[in-house]
Amino acid sequence: MRIIVIGAGVGGASAAIALQRLGHEVVVHDRMRENRPVGAALSLWSNGVKVLNWLGLGDEVAALGGRMEDMAYLDGRTGEELCAFSLAPVTEQTGQRPYPVARADLQRLLMERVEHLHLGHEMVAIDDDGERVTVTFADGSTDTGDLLIAADGARSRARDHVTGAAEGGPRIERTYSGYTNFNGLVAADPAIGPADRWTTYVADGKRAAVMPVADGRFYFWFDVPQPAGLPDERTDGKAPLEEAFADWAPGVKTLLAAIDPERSLNRVEIWDIDPFHTWTRGRVALLGDAAHNTAPDIGQGACLALEDSFALAISLATNTVSVEDSLRRYAASRSERAGDLVLRARARGEETHGYDPATTAAWYESLRGNDGAGIIRGIVGNITGSPVNLGVGVL
Question: Per-residue confidence at 234, pLDDT binned at 50, 70, 90?
């Protein structure tokens, strides 16, 4: 079949690679003009890495990933270590080491494996006549295929087509999660945290954290609870962070000093979408954030998109009634799990970001002296329901 994919992000590119490997002619279109991903890095937990292994990219992804051996929580104001523990049980129980990776590095790897990629193409319309799907782009050009996979992100235009909002039906709207995330890359520095540890400073509903990625770098992020729609001036640089974390621990001040806003500093308001289950319409199917935009609080956004690619390819390879039937079976296998993880991430954010001060204070207290068993159980619990486990989950 000739398959059109809209979106060359992690979900769209991985879906294209999977479908290419099945022998389909796959064409990917994206409105971006160069590899400029939103966000500096991402967490590839074991379920996401397993999909990349299945795509034949295991060695390359391992080389991009940081060696994250341990996890620790510190008091944001004093720097006191609240708890520290090994992440080895995640690998032991799931059969795969997780890797934090720089998003641009992963994006580049995936895009290099896409055989037919067209950038600068913004989709504006979809026409599905029951036998073929035609996409129209902003420049007036078109493309036609046997089916369309829409991986066009959180603000998906294809989602309106699939759900009927484009014809006047109710529109699925995003929900503000209550905080802004600032992220980027800096050189690893033991004054911030060990180079093989996920280190998180917490206080006042805010977080400052680092994860190791390849080439001696830390992926950093700061979470700041605040209203949506505040002015975002690039000229402000890191001033908003210096204000929000002015009296924090020495490790956080070292991190702030290391940030070069001109090289690597992103500001992202965090939104998600209430789970919904209308992922397909005719020969069009949603994938990734278009289907399940989630907050990053459990680090499963990219992994869910990779799982979608796996499940989509399996469905198209094994179900032969019709294209429409195969897409419906793909969606039925995914929407419940994806919706569950969207809600888990939302609940996690509500616990950690001080919306109810007593709840967050209780969480801080629970970290003191924590042996990590419950935290590991939560991380592994997000992984075990993955379709890539083929019925063999935690051992």
Answer: confident
pLDDT at 183: 95
CB neighbour list of residue 390: distance below 8 Å, 6 or more residues apart: none
The set of residues, in sequence order, having a beta carbon less than 8 Å from that of 207 and lying 6+ positions away, is 76, 200, 201, 221, 222, 223, 352, 353
Whether residue 272 is predicted with pLDDT greater than 80 in this model: the reply is yes
Among 176, 304, 191, CA closest to 230: 176
What residues are paired with 162 via a beta bridge? none
Q: Within a domain: residue 383?
A: yes
Q: Six-digit token pair at 359?
A: 């709840």
**Structural domain contains residue 40:** yes
Query: Residue 338: what pLDDT?
Result: 97
Q: What is the sign, positive or negative, of the torsion defined by CA atoms of 79, 82, 86, 91?
A: negative
Number of domains in the chain: 1
Assess whether pLDDT exceeds 90 at residue 169.
no
| CATH code for position 276 | 3.50.50.60
Q: Is residue 261 part of a domain?
A: no
CA 153 to CA 270: how far, in whole Å? 14
- The Cα–Cα gap between 89 and 377 comes to 9
Residue 31 lies in a domain: yes
* Mode of pairing for the β-strands spanning 70-75 and 197-203: parallel
Task: Look up the domain containing 83 and give its range.
Answer: 2-174+272-388
CA distances in angstroms from 366 to 73, 206, 215, 304, 359, listed in the order given:
11, 16, 34, 29, 11
Residues 12-59 have pLDDT tens digits of 999 999 999 999 999 999 998 766 655 688 999 999 999 999 999 999
